[in-house]
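SAMPLE LOG
Freezer: B-3
Tube label: C17
Construct: single chain, 202 aa
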Amino acid sequence: MPHTLDPLPYAYNALEPYIDEQTMRLHHDKHHQTYVDKLNAALENAPEFAAKSLDDLLRDLTAVPESVRTAVRNHGGGHTNHSIFWKNMRPGGGGDPGGSLADALQKTFGDLAKFREEMTKAATGVFGSGWAWLVAEERTLRVVPRPNQDSPLMDGQTPLLGLDVWEHAYYLKYQNKRPEYIAAWWNVVNWDDVAERFAAHS
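STRUCTURE (predicted):
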């Protein structure tokens, strides 16, 4: 069964003023759709892998035929990264996480402010296009940058919170001011979704 693009879980303008409607329409309907289309096109040439889940494909890329491996890495990574990204955000988000997620972040980073600093530093420091991720690796939380559309799944990590720093995620509103976009993004983080991912991993 071909991979499909789910609709946004909120209106295109729901994250304003932090992320604008035009960016959300282009980012979701054009960029993300292209990753899905190109992933499906690649898997037509490897039909025995078409039924596998995206997580399984990315966790064991070496098993994917070399002829389509790069396409699965790039477009499959783009599909899964963005699928998490949309759910990691919500209108009226931001603030601080609670419960066991907050406890784990404080244990790992010292306090929530230091976690935000680490995440912001990773996102600001990505050269060119890529992502900053909060991941779970066994029982450890880490902040890791990833180039292009590489997914933490490729390294055996569980992605919990992802920040897209490709220019298409922010350029219409923020131009080259990536730090301003990153600062604004914290106001739409959906901590409930992150906590659910953390609980599922734990």
